[in-house]
Amino acid sequence: MKKGLSFIIxxxxxxxxxxxDYTKSGxxxxxxxxxxxxxxxxxxxxxxVREKSPELIEDGIGNEFQVRAEESDGELAIIVAPKTFINxxxxxxxxxxxxxxxxxxxxxxxxxxxxxxxxxxxxxPLRVRLYFNNDSDVYVEFRDNTPKxxxxxxxxxxxxxxxxxxxxxxxxxxxxSFDALVNMTKRSLPxxxxxxxxxxxxxxxxxxxxxxxxxxxxxYQEDACYNENxxxxxxxxxxxxxANTNDSAKNAAIDSAVSSAVSKGFLVMSGPGFLKxxxxxxxxxxxxxxxxxxxxVVPTVNYNSLGKNGVISQNWNLSFTLDWCRNLAVExxxxxxxxxxxxxxxGAKDVTGVDVRISPFVADISDGxxxxxxxxxxxxxxxxxxxxxxxxxxxxxxxRHFYFAAIKQHSVDKPENAAFTNCAVLFPFFDGRGKFDCxxxxxxxxxxxxxxxxxxxxxxxxLERVEATDYFSPMVK
Length: 477
Prior knowledge:
26% of the residues lie in helices and 29% in strands. The chain has 13 helices and 23 strands.
């Protein structure tokens, strides 16, 4: 009886369909399906693979994968991609009625995609690439350089790991699950910097969206901000705002336009004034007071008096928006601190923690070329080419923060000279699907991150971290 029962159980188990499973983060994992492809696709002769048509393989839990080959630049890529859907909107009649149709696709950059690259002539396995997040410019790749295998991890065209030796063969990846791979490389690859956990960005998004509602009520005016008593003041002179150019007619026109804007209920602010307005919306809620202009212009950079910048700084404030952003971030920090009051101290060490000083990248990819990472430079910040990747990592590792950005720009008249003359505020986040995005406000206007980077591609940017809050109440007029 027992022997017969065992036979029945064994027979039933053979009827259970093969399933692919999910990773811990909920991404389809093709491990069991890949086990079926080793001889027919991964190690089969190149001519045989070229003749194959794409195959659809369904697992036992509702996931469908497509296996196909694509050839480019002398390489044959064997792609195992999960099925996803994209919505197409179209109209079929003159009434303009819109219809939405879901169309299946098998993108090689979809989360869960697994790609084996082989030499197009010899069939030799060259590397394996895995996409594991909802952003196609984030992936991990393993390169064969017999007798060693090296790992790379790329975030937004920058390497956070490059040529890291790992203790297993490339062929082992043919049948290894993603979670097992993470466990095998947890000590050598910085998975924690790309581990995306959605739904942690409520306060960041709430602040960003509330700021957006006020944009139409903001009138941009250079040098303008509101002082601690919510009076319209000049930042440069720390007195009631009045245009101060070398042209009296221009001054009259500016003052008239500002007066008209005020009478219509607009908030009149410059770029720095805009950031102060945001900070006051945090500080006043906690302390009952606003920040003071004189506290925000306190220098945070110590220039060598005998050096070039030291000489220039005697007549020009080279670090204006850097000082402003740092001091604003410290004011926001103090508003949350009940045990001590922080001040920014000039020097290589930032005791407040408001400076973003991480250097996560070892190399950059620019126009297909490998460049050395610029990293972080004290009192200068970061190259704009690394900004997206940097914000991605910050969003993953500091999910409840936004950032004031001081922008160091070159002089139009003398390109060899540069100064911090502009600023912005950045709200990076991951949406509910785990896809990265960043809301940018500069000079009272909203920009996409790509447009912001393009506008300042020859500049440097220094970031100051500020903790977002649900208790954000900016001033209104």
